[in-house]
């Protein structure tokens, strides 16, 4: 890199270095550059480049409007998004939430490139490069070192560093920000591609985002991104991923066929026009995500199950808030106070989205009723991303109340039911037992088998069966215990097995005592 | 219909339709959702049973987890709807 006067290598000062030129980084850079600050924007990749996250909400449109980019976004061929339709396993659980105000489905290659070009036009200096480390003075971050496209290392200083690196979570990896906590839905994988002429709803709803789901944390998105092209992605737990295919193509094909029959129907005989790509889909949060001289924005500090497409919208909104934070700081506002206001703002939005999605997955059969009832206007606002208000919307209060009051563990119970089914199918195995049952609670699943005879062969047989079950369902919260008659007698007395009962748990009888 | 009657008919429905006739562990305070009994099909068929056989139409706003958590709470909610309609 060269300085303005032609000399290379001497550290050059900026007001702000923005790492990552996705929507968060670009919106931040545009705001700061337009306010007259010297901004360096670092980006690892050459734009335009493919990226997922094609659906926006109302608050992203607010940022676009504020930046004066509405006409440019429409010129990219972005489709107006009429709403979100959610299709479950039963017709009555289906629902549609129309958008509260205008927003779009975008192809990210063109959209992100537009934002980058806008930042450059606003005066941001753009540099392709990969950040290697931060520069520090004491506890304070004062710049970064990065490798440019030719592999040459540069050191640049700035009064402030913003991590907008998305799921790379740069400052977390460099141990500047706090550790990454994997949250909520555990580990999932998304496999995705695009189809030509996939069947859409007729009429104005045709360009809506469709979400198809079946079991908890198994879902698919269906997002029209042009008149003929539709982005389709399947999100499934990593455990399912391993059991349904060896390649991403196989897993994608399995997902489009099995997640929901309606999705399968819409894609029948349609042509897939993009390679199948894979991305991990682990909800996580990083804390702290602000500190002396640095801040994280968007996915760089938090990522939540993307089922309702909030990611880009939250990133762009947080970036707008970060403009205020950083500009204020550079003008002498007390750093800790400015950062506290930023964190409060981010938490309000992130926790609302988190609770909305947690409610959806915890009570999927109740969600549709709630969106259709008297709170339907609140849901339009929530789905538009209006999650930053000082007072939470009534619908959010209602969902939080249910989450706090009603204890459920649907994941555990559906896993318990699946294991029970598998055991019932294995009649020959149950021949050797006098009684058998399965219990589950929030703590785990236990299968208890009481053998008919002191039969070592049967015991071996059961152990092999246990290994198969554990192979299929994981060992973390599954225990299979077999009791030969004498052991059962000494532990529980004659026929009494009730001591085993898990308090608050459910017991499923696999075989009655006989 | 009294609350006890409502509760008894609901209990019979749940045992027969959702528990394959095995109701030995079902009590008024059994956590129905934690047991995984009310998935989306379970809810829909329970609501149509309530409508068809108890003559009570449950409004969308009342279909909330806290009203379906146990048999006791479900009967209370239905009793409340019946009283308000009377």
Give a structural overview.
The complex is a heterodimer of chains A (514) and B (86). Chain A has 17 helices and 24 strands. By secondary structure, chain A is an alpha+beta fold. In chain A, α1 runs parallel beside α4 (108-121). With 86 residues, chain B is mainly alpha-helical. Chain B has 3 helices and no strands. Chain B has helices at 3-18, 40-54, 71-85. Classes of the chains: A alpha+beta (514), B mainly alpha (86). At the A-B interface, α11, α13, α14 and β24 of A face α2 of B.
- The low-confidence parts of chain A are 1-10
Shape label of chain A: globular
| Basic shape of chain B | globular
Q: Report the C-alpha radius of gyration of chain A, rounded.
A: 27 Å
Give the ordered list of helices and strands of chain B: HHH
Percentage of residues assigned to helices of chain A: 25-40%
Tell me the number of strands of chain A: 24
Identify the biggest protein-protein contact and residues per side.
Answer: A-B, 33 and 23 residues
Find the structural class of chain A using helix and strand composition: alpha+beta
């Amino acid at each position: 890199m060269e300085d303005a006067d032609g000399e290379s290598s001497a550290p050059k000062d900026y007001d702000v270095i923005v790492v990552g030129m996705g929507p968060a980084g670009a919106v931040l850079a545009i705001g700061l550059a337009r306010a007259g600050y010297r901004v360096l924007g670092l980006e690892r990749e050459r734009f335009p480049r493919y990226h997922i996250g094609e659906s926006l909400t109302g608050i992203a449109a607010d940022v676009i409007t504020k930046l004066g980019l509405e006409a440019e976004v429409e010129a990219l061929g972005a489709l107006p998004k009429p709403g979100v339709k959610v299709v479950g396993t039963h017709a009555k659980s289906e629902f549609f939430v129309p958008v509260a105000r205008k927003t779009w489905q975008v192809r990210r290659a063109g959209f992100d490139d537009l934002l980058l070009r806008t930042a450059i036009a606003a005066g941001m200096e753009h540099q392709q490069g990969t950040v290697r480390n931060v520069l520090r003075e004491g506890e304070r971050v004062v710049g970064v070192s990065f490798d440019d496209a030719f592999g040459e290392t540069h050191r640049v200083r700035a009064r402030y560093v913003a991590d907008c690196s998305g799921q790379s979570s740069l400052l977390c990896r460099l141990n500047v920000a706090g550790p990454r906590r994997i949250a909520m839905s555990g580990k999932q994988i998304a496999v995705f591609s695009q189809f030509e002429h996939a069947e859409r709803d007729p009429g104005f709803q045709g360009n809506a985002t469709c979400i198809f789901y079946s079991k908890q944390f198994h879902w698919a998105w269906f997002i029209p991104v042009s008149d003929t092209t539709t982005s389709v992605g399947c999100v499934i737990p990593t455990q399912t991923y391993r059991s349904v295919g060896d390649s991403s193509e196989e897993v994608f094909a399995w997902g489009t066929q099995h997640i929901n029959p309606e999705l399968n129907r819409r894609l029948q005989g349609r042509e897939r026009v993009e390679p199948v790509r894979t991305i991990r889909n682990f909800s996580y949060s990083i804390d702290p995500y602000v500190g002396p001289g640095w801040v994280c924005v968007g996915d760089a500090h938090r990522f939540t199950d993307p089922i309702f497409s909030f990611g880009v919208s939250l990133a762009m909104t947080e970036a707008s808030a970060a403009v205020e934070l950083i500009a204020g700081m550079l003008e002498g506002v007390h750093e800790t106070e400015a950062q506290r206001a930023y964190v409060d703002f981010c938490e309000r939005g992130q926790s609302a989205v988190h609770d909305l999605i947690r409610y959806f997955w915890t009570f999927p059969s109740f969600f549709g009723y709630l969106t259709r009832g008297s709170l339907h206007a609140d849901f339009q606002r929530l789905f538009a991303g209006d999650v930053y208000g000082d007072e939470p919307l009534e619908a959010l209060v209602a969902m939080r109340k249910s989450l706090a009051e009603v204890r459920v563990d649907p994941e555990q119970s559906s896993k318990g039911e699946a294991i029970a089914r598998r055991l019932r199918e294995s009649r020959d195995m149950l021949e050797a037992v006098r009684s058998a049952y399965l219990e589950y609670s929030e703590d785990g699943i236990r299968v208890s088998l009481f053998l008919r005879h002191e039969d070592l062969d049967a015991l071996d047989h059961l152990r092999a069966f246990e290994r198969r079950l554990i192979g299929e369902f994981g060992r973390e919260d599954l225990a299979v215990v077999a009791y030969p008659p004498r052991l059962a007698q000494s532990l529980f007395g004659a026929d009494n097995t009730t001591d085993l009962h898990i308090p608050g748990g459910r017991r499923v009888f696999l075989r009655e005592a006989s | 219909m009294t609350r006890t009657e409502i509760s008894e008919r609901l209990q019979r429905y749940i045992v027969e339709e959702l528990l394959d006739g095995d109701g030995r562990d079902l009590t008024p305070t059994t956590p129905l959702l934690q047991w995984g009994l009310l998935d989306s099909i379970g809810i829909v068929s329970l609501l149509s049973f309530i409508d068809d056989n108890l003559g009570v139409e449950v409004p969308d706003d009342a279909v909330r987890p806290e009203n379906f958590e146990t048999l006791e709470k479900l009967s209370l909610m239905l009793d409340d709807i019946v009283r308000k309609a009377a």
